[in-house]
């Protein structure tokens, strides 16, 4: 098989775990596609994205790596002198043009071409600490933002660069949700070395295990980010008999909003942070079930961060929007 299938049969609506930023020996990674596929299964992943630097997947490279239990999305890490971004869901043999910098018309043209081909444009590691890695393109140009990148922290994949990316994304979220256009958050390992894959991973609620459905779920923000497959999280909001989940808008009718977080697999002593348009609004111990009440007027949206003792993130979510 030259290229992997874009849909796995028999996998209907559900939550799927994946890694959206992965490098193999076909760019600057140390693992072959076959080894990455094996590592993905070990990490409990349902999908991964092949994102070599400025290169398309070659025929035969990933064709047999996935099989019936692992979806392989074709993509590219568009690597420029003023930042990197991910083009996800590209057709076989297709690349996005990387010969642009901030202010060049080629940047907007490349985004249009990726979207026109059915793909998704993701801002990669916005605060990466190396020349050319820091993203200088406006975040609002992208469909999603990689707020958690696991490449530079071996044991605990959270560092100051991720903290800065999360803070920047969080500050923009209020204005974006009010305007009706906001960029969901994703997390990826940016795997180059053994042992990195799936730390972190993006967990999406998709209609099926297919490239189209996974990208649609990411685009809509129906997702959260986990440090590993051991971490389980469910977040819902209820008001006036109506219920909403991640990426959805809840019409509260002016009634109080009851928020529920269900957790497992988080370290002892962790805390749950409820964040709204006003910043951190509530904090509680990370029990199996954590509840908090608010209203739409005060909050605008609610998203969750789960942090271990010392502040490192264990999991975080996209928002539930309140109206």
TrEMBL record:
Polymerase/histidinol phosphatase N-terminal domain span: 18-82
Signal peptide annotation: none
Domain of life from the UniProt record: Bacteria
CDD domains on file: PHP_HisPPase
An example Gene Ontology molecular-function term: 5'-3' DNA exonuclease activity
NCBIfam families: CehA_McbA_metalo
Annotated PANTHER family: EXONUCLEASE (PTHR42924), POLYMERASE_HISTIDINOL PHOSPHATASE N-TERMINAL DOMAIN-CONTAINING PROTEIN (PTHR42924:SF3)
Name this protein carries in UniProt: Metal-dependent phosphoesterase TrpH
Species: Kitasatospora cineracea
């Amino acid at each position: 098989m030259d290229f992997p299938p874009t849909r796995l049969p028999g996998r209907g609506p559900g939550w799927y775990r994946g890694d959206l930023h992965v490098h193999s020996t076909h760019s600057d990674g140390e693992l072959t596609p076959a080894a990455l596929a094996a590592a993905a299964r070990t990490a409990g992943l349902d999908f991964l994205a092949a994102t070599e630097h400025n290169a398309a997947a070659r025929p035969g490279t990933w064709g047999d790596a996935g099989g019936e239990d692992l979806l392989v999305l074709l993509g590219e890490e568009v690597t420029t002198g003023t930042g990197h971004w991910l083009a996800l869901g590209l057709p076989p043999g297709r690349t996005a043009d990387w010969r642009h910098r901030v202010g060049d018309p080629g940047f907007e043209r490349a985004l249009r071409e990726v979207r026109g081909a059915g793909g998704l444009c993701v801002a990669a590691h916005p605060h990466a600490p190396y020349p050319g890695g820091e993203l200088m393109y406006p975040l609002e140009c992208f469909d999603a933002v990689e707020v958690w990148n696991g490449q530079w922290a071996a044991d605990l994949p959270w560092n100051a660069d991720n903290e800065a990316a999360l803070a920047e994304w969080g500050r923009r979220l209020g204005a974006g949700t009010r305007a009706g256009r906001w960029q969901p958050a994703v997390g990826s390992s940016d795997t180059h070395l053994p042992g990195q894959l799936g730390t972190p991973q993006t967990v999406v609620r998709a209609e099926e295990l297919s490239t189209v459905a996974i990208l649609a779920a990411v685009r809509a923000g129906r997702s959260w980010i986990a440090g590993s497959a051991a971490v389980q999280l469910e977040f819902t909001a209820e008001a006036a008999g109506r219920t909403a989940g991640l990426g959805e808008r809840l019409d509260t009718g002016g009634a109080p909003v009851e928020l529920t977080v269900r957790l497992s697999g988080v370290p002892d002593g962790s805390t749950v942070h409820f964040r709204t348009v006003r910043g951190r609004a509530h904090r509680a111990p990370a029990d199996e079930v954590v509840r908090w009440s608010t209203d739409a007027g005060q909050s605008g949206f609610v998203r969750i961060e789960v942090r271990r003792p010392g502040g490192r993130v264990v999991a975080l979510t996209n928002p539930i929007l309140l109206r």
